[in-house]
Amino acid sequence: MLTRRQFLLAGYGSLLGAMAGLSGCAHSAGKMSSASMAPGLPHKGMGVFGSLSLKAHAERNGLLYGCAVRPELFSQDAKYTRLIIDQCDILVAENAMKWLALRPAFNSYYFNEADALLAFAEQHQMKLRGHNLVWHEQLPKWFASMVNRDNAREVLVQHIQTVAGRYSGRIHSWDVVNEAIWIPDGRADGLRKSPWLSLLGDDYIELAFRTAREADPTALLTYNDYGIEEDSQENEQKRSAVLLLLRRLKARNVPIDAVGIQSHLTANPNASFRGDGLRRFISSARDLGLQVFVTEMDVADGALPGDVGTRDDAVAALYRDYLNVVLANPAVTAVLTWGITDRYTWLQTNKPRKDGMHVRPLPFDEEYRAKPAFIALRRTFDDRQADASTQGADGSAANPYAPFTPNPTRARE
Ligand code: XIL
Prior knowledge:
TIM Barrel; disordered N terminus; eight-stranded parallel barrel; binds (3S,4R)-3-hydroxy-2-oxopiperidin-4-yl beta-D-xylopyranoside
């Protein structure tokens, strides 16, 4: 049997082979505003296909690019489906693999959408992330009345065995535990007072990882969280608590391979992203031998003015600034956005704009046209390879598409 590393490298080697001989670089695209781009799919003449796609740029720079998907749309929206096939190396179910979707009743499972998604990913040679096995949200209604201290352990273990076991060997990485840290709950270890913690105590996390490893020995087992991205004091505290947890797991030989940084960001018209704390967090994760994934990136635009060009440029600038920090560390191996087109984004319901305009947090707009955020993603993937040769490039802060000036402290392998 292949080791996990061989498994990943095998997939990666064939991608690199397929890339040989491809050329093409979008740097000549320069500054684009959405108004200047051709409308509609197929996005002919827009330079986003093949060697110019997000996945091609990601692969050339040692990364995977992908997004969260709603598999129920595949049969309803051909443009959406095409866009995903064209742009992504890796997918994750936005909801279809959560307890709420998989567990209609205490004693039954519903796998249709999740199975269809895996079949789709495999048909198009894409990898699939599993999201998620343990979370305090999106639990089925029956959970509160049916699960108690006597059966919780068995219920958790059986769920992980059944779900991770069903897809064993076919999942790139599982978010085994999602969002287990919540500082406001006031515990010294920072753990969230989730139903799982109340039912099982603090070693539910260890139990979940050990069970997941047994059920699927090849998936990269991931701890996934948010609120660890920004420069704020709150985020710094949360980073410390997450690291404490990761260190504790490693010290106890718990099988964990990666940390997922959700990366739901908000564009702030009055402040730029520095990312010093995040940079240190990623280095510490790397020191623990973990890979790092950007698992759910999007940029909320609610604090920005309505003008679409201004908004798109500010959103793109944050994609650029954030990913330049994150991708400087070679431990980061995948970037996923939470959706791919503004047409389908959870932020439209979760963080709607006060002026009633549609939110624009993703790389493609509602009509599937590439936006400045698309260019920013592609360029940050390319900048990852940039080395001394680009130092001193004239990167003006005012232009989101100016060449990236590498930070001299960037880690290199
Ligand atoms: C969100 C989905 O996008 C929504 O459709 C759903 O209603 C709620 O969950 N962090 C996570 C994701 O880990 O699972 C969440 O997804 C977004 C925040």
